[in-house]
Write a structure and sequence with these properties.
It is a single chain. By secondary structure, the protein is mainly α. Among the domains are: about 25-100, no CATH class; about 150-235. Helix content is about 70%, strand content about 0%. The chain contains eleven helices and no strands. Helix 2 (about 25-50) runs antiparallel to helix 4, helix 4 packs antiparallel against helix 5 (about 80-100) and helix 9 (about 150-175) packs antiparallel against helix 10. The termini are far apart.
């Protein structure tokens, strides 16, 4: 005989279901347990990833991660066996097949992996042909960029937002949506003023991108990450 469950009477709209689940004390507790168990698992098994450049045992590490993560997480009850193992399987596919980061780590070590990231970013910034052909890869979205130059990313983001705002304002004014002026000369001057602001903002973005290229230059270029490391300076404190 089948049993049916009904919603609580307080749930009168479908949109309330999500909120009810997310604020349920039991679920919140389980999610916190899942987070803590995951952190504990990583603390216990991260050494396997650290040792990868030495032993190069990629498939052994994959098996270890799959088995131990599933055994640690599944008792919490939020994910079944297949979904739990799918977490590691999906991460491994992305890190091993898609980005090839694990392969590079095993062959080049951590320093070589980071250097390959920097080279990829620098090449993408300098590859103007791909940008013109519609290549969707954004080098500034790479995971290492925020760690290297977070202040430049914020400056670029703010400047690009201001450029977009001024371009819309300029276009709206030219179409007469900002109100008509009685003097043609005033209108022309206003448009020129907007154009000058746009030029200044676009120039500031170029300066930020130029600085990124400098930081990602070779070990012979003063001011680059590689140059600082070669000289023995502590680049983490910068």
């Amino acid at each position: 005989m089948e049993e049916y469950l009904d919603f609580q009477p307080t749930l009168t709209e479908r949109a309330q279901i999500k909120q009810c689940i997310e604020t349920n004390a039991g679920i919140v507790q389980q999610e916190e347990e899942l987070r803590q168990v995951t952190l504990n698992w990583w603390q216990e098994h991260q050494q396997g990833l650290i040792d990868l450049p030495k032993n190069k045992e990629l498939m052994k590490l994959r098996t270890e991660f799959l088995q131990t993560f599933e055994a640690a997480v599944r008792p919490i009850g939020l994910l079944d066996r297949f979904k739990t193992m799918g977490v590691i399987a999906s991460w491994w596919e992305d890190a091993y097949e898609v980005s090839a980061d694990l392969k590079r780590l095993a062959n080049l070590g951590f320093k070589g992996l980071i250097d390959s990231w920097v080279d990829t970013i620098r090449d993408a910034l300098e590859d103007t042909e791909s940008k013109q052909s519609g290549n969707k890869f954004d080098p500034l979205s790479h995971k290492i960029v925020p760690a290297l130059v977070p202040h430049y990313l914020q400056q670029l983001e703010d400047a690009e937002a201001e450029v977009a705002r001024l371009e819309q304002e300029k276009e709206a004014f030219e179409q007469g949506e900002e109100g008509e002026t009685s003097e043609d000369e005033e209108a022309v001057n206003f448009v020129k003023q907007l154009e000058e602001q746009l030029k200044e903002l676009k120039y500031s973005i170029k300066d930020g991108q130029k600085r990124l290229k400098e930081l990602q230059g070779s070990d012979r270029k003063k001011g680059s990450i590689k140059y600082e490391k070669k000289k023995g300076y502590d680049i983490k404190s910068g």
